[in-house]
Amino acid sequence: MTTPAIAVRGVSKIYDNGFQALDNIMLDVPKGEILALLGPNGAGKTTLIGIICGIVQATQGHVAVFGQDNIKDYRKARASIGLVPQELTTDAFETVWNTVSFSRGLFGKPRNPAHIEQVLKNLSLWDKKDSQIRMLSGGMKRRVMIAKALSHEPDILFLDEPTAGVDVELRKSMWEQVRKLRETGVTIILTTHYLEEAEEMADRIGIISKGRLILTEDKKTLMRKLGKKELVLDLYKPLAALPEGLETFSLRLGPDNMQIIFTYDPAKEDNGVVTLLDRLRAHGIKCKDFNTRQSSLEEIFVQLVETA
């Protein structure tokens, strides 16, 4: 059996004030996977990352990084990890080059200017290498944090809200950089409030609510299992109200009452679409066009958290 990049076993965290941030977390992350951790503020995402990285001490349970206990073999385990925290913590008066090079030295790695150069070029920071951090935009500072995390050539990269405060164009550019890292075999765990980000990038989704990991699932499987579909019927003329006798169907009227929207489960063999069309025809309601659309990850996320 292949050793996972990260193995979390029964991890809980209770703070001194009695608040339980994590409750019996069990999680395996295989090498080369992009795992997105989703959850509302205070759900425990950052606490879990801190425990895996050895920054926060768990109340119970343990974590292994490539088979190395992250407490007993802290140096070996931590050397495999690059962490990009939410906070932008850098020396404002230091240059980009020196900041990233210094981070490499903190892990006892020998000088490797060629590697630092490649990291900066990959993150579109090469032309800023001699700039002081204070002169950079928020998006560029975020890229410097990623460069610092990659300076010692880690096998695992944690991205805690990596694109917070970053404009859409820069966000998509950073997604591309993350994909390239995954192609080199780097395991990536990201937390994000941008559900579009998880849907775009992740192989697997983990959802944390109130300190519990309520679900981990392959992204495509999750959307197939929990994602409802909508049948949108465009009408020739507006309806004042939905006809009586259709209460058993999940229906609503669309904009200007010119659409009927039917939510159904595509996994069911008898999903009700044919029956609905027959009923509408019996009521004299004619449709000029129709289309279907899949529920977004955001809708699935809200559904899961509300029922947790």
Task: Record keyword descriptors for this entry.
elongated, Alpha-Beta Plaits, 3 domains, four-stranded antiparallel β-sheet, single chain, alpha/beta, six-stranded mixed β-sheet
Please provide a written account of the structure.
- The protein is of the alpha/beta class and 308 residues long.
- It folds into three domains: 1-80 and 155-169 and 182-225, Rossmann fold; 89-152, no CATH class; 227-295, 2-Layer Sandwich (Alpha-Beta Plaits), CATH 3.30.70.
- The chain has ten helices and 14 strands.
- Strands 6-7-8-3-9-10 form a six-stranded mixed beta sheet, with helices on both faces. Strands 2-1-4-5 form a four-stranded antiparallel beta sheet.
- Helix 6 links the parallel strand 7 and strand 8 (187-191).
- Helix 3 (96-106) packs parallel to helix 5.
- It starts with 5 loop residues before the first strand and ends with a helix.
- 32% of the residues are buried.
- The mean pLDDT is 87.
Topology (elements, then pairings):
Elements: E1 6-14, E2 20-29, E3 34-38, H1 45-52, E4 60-65, E5 68-69, H2 74-79, E6 81-84, H3 96-106, H4 113-122, H5 138-150, E7 156-160, H6 168-183, E8 187-191, H7 195-201, E9 204-209, E10 212-218, H8 219-226, E11 229-235, E12 251-253, E13 259-264, H9 273-282, E14 287-294, H10 297-307
Parallel strand pairs: 3-8, 3-9, 6-7, 7-8
Antiparallel strand pairs: 1-2, 1-4, 4-5, 9-10, 11-13, 11-14, 12-13
Helix pairs in contact: 3-5
